[in-house]
Specification:
The chain is an alpha+beta fold and about 500 residues long. The protein contains twelve helices and 24 strands. Helix 1 runs parallel beside helix 8 and helix 9 runs antiparallel to helix 10. The termini are far apart. This is FAD-dependent oxidoreductase. Its cofactor is FAD.
Length: about 500
């Protein structure tokens, strides 16, 4: 039997960015080799655009505690790029651990809201899409994207830091420096895309401010490492859990077979919890005493900070460089940025559209991000209020199996069920209803139902996501057929009428 790496699946603990020098000229220079930057390179390469990617880091690590959950809408893009199967295969813990998101008192404690087990009778995909949600660490995405870009000869260079941007009427000159040798190079590009995170150098160099309130407290994402705990949790523990007890709350999620993400806080901004404090929270989330190693602790905030514009001249922003908010799907918003911007850059660079088309990127994505950010912050506040009220009423110890404890857990479960609302609108409703390039017929915009985070219905109005679903007996979907092309969809109930889809 072959030896499995430490993850129990594919070994993506460390992703090494290629070593080399960025090219002297390129259509688009992408600053930042995180999942959004590499996704942008994938999208633009698919459209025939010459791109290069630089990042000041030389590696990315699994234990950084980055995003893991990818919505069906994001998976639609993975599929469109032809990379979904590679991402599916790159699991870092056994697929049998995927049992939905469980609401529990601890990993070994009591289930507060039952989650249906997977069934052969259903695909598990939401009704609006042919694709499922996936859980894969950011390093998995980065490795898959890097392999794909290498196959297409795309330059990705780690260890190069952006230090200068100078724009003129024909393009942008970007000064990048090797972080080890100090070697300096100038890269000439028609456009620069900053995907370099919340503290974006790209955003700072072009003088784009951010708006939104600063947080008044902080939280920590922990990665803790266990030994072999299968004697306590079984061979297939639940990989994704939201914990509610007197010591721990929030996600307890597997990153690999030995590493788990745990949330801690909130804390005052100036408070630095000790390692012992954080490990105690980790043990409370597991629900039993075990040896834990604190591998990493990443600070995050329940707050919204959105760039005042996503475009300044020939420099554009995407992902965390453009917007950070209360955690929960922000990587997906970055992928949405990329999908929105890709075809527009391709059209401008090919001479099929004026440069002003790029203004619509800001007009469409910034309001969408604001809408989702406002919802996320409000949801977070409601969750914190609910947790405080639940704790005030008491959460029985896991060992307490008495009638009163059983009744109290049922009360907590009912409260959580009552508070839960779906997120179909957040996942799928990327409507663009304030864009100069979208034209409505008379009355269409006025009759459009308001955006709701919990509701999504396929809508034929301009600016909405194209519906997806299987369109032939062999399983291909509408999005498969369209790919990266433009399409005119003609619907008819007459099977002998015009074709259902025409792609050019």
């Amino acid at each position: 039997m072959p030896h499995l790496p430490a993850t129990g699946g594919r070994d993506v603990h460390t992703v090494r960015f290629p070593v080399g020098r960025p090219p002297a000229t390129v259509d688009v220079l992408i600053v930042g080799a995180g999942p959004v930057g590499l996704a942008a390179a994938t999208e633009l390469t698919a459209r025939g655009i010459r791109v290069a990617v630089v990042d000041r880091a030389r590696t990315a690590t699994l234990v950084r505690a980055g995003a893991m959950g990818h919505t069906p809408r994001v998976v639609e893009h993975f599929r469109r790029w032809g990379l979904l199967q590679r991402i599916r295969e790159a699991w870092t813990y056994p697929p049998e651990w995927n049992r939905g998101t469980r609401l529990v008192t601890s990993l070994t404690g009591h289930e507060l809201v039952p989650v249906p087990r997977p069934s052969f009778r259903g695909s598990g995909a939401p009704e609006h899409t042919a694709d499922e949600a996936l859980r894969r660490p950011q390093t998995v995405l980065q490795q898959v994207f890097l392999d794909h870009l290498a196959e297409h000869g795309v330059s990705v260079a780690g260890g190069w830091e952006l230090q200068e941007l100078t724009e003129d009427g024909e393009g942008v000159s970007a000064g990048v420096v090797d972080v080890d040798s100090g070697e300096r190079r100038m890269v000439r590009a028609a456009y620069v895309l900053g995907t370099d995170g919340g503290s974006s150098t790209t955003r700072r160099l072009v003088g784009i401010d951010r708006e939104g309130d600063h947080a008044t407290e902080k939280r920590l994402r922990l990665i803790v490492r266990t030994g072999d705990i299968s004697d306590r949790v079984g061979p297939a523990p639940s990989a994704t859990n939201i914990v509610f007890n007197q010591r721990a709350s929030g996600f307890l999620a597997a990153v690999s077979t030995r590493e788990w993400r745990v949330y801690a806080g909130p804390y005052p901004l100036d408070h630095e919890p000790t390692e012992d404090e954080l490990l105690a929270i980790g043990r409370a989330a597991f629900g039993f005493d075990l040896d834990l190693e604190l591998v990493s602790a990443t600070t995050f905030y329940h707050a919204t900070r959105i760039a005042t514009t996503f475009r300044r001249g020939r420099v554009l922003l995407a992902g965390d460089a453009a917007h950070v908010r209360t955690p929960g799907g922000n990587l997906g918003e970055g992928i949405g940025d990329v999908a929105n911007l890709g075809w527009k850059l391709a059209a401008v660079l090919a001479g099929h559209a004026p440069d002003t088309l790029l203004d619509s990127y800001d007009q469409e994505r910034r309001p969408h991000n604001r809408r989702v950010a406002d919802h996320s912050l409000e949801r977070s506040r409601r969750s914190q209020t609910a947790l405080a009220e639940i704790r005030a009423g008491g959460i029985p110890d896991d060992a307490d199996l008495g009638d009163a404890a059983v009744r109290r857990r049922a009360e907590i479960g009912e409260r959580l069920r009552r508070d839960h609302t779906g997120g179909a609108g957040v996942t799928f409703d990327e409507r663009y209803d304030a864009s100069d390039v979208i034209w409505y017929e008379e009355g269409q915009l006025a009759s459009e139902p308001g955006w709701r985070p919990d509701v999504y219905e396929d809508d034929p109005r301009p600016g909405h996501r194209a519906p997806d679903g299987r369109i032939d007996p062999h399983g291909s979907t509408l999005h498969d057929r369209i790919g990266t092309s433009f399409a005119l969809l003609v619907l008819t109930e007459d099977p002998t009428g015009r074709p259902a889809e025409d792609s050019t």
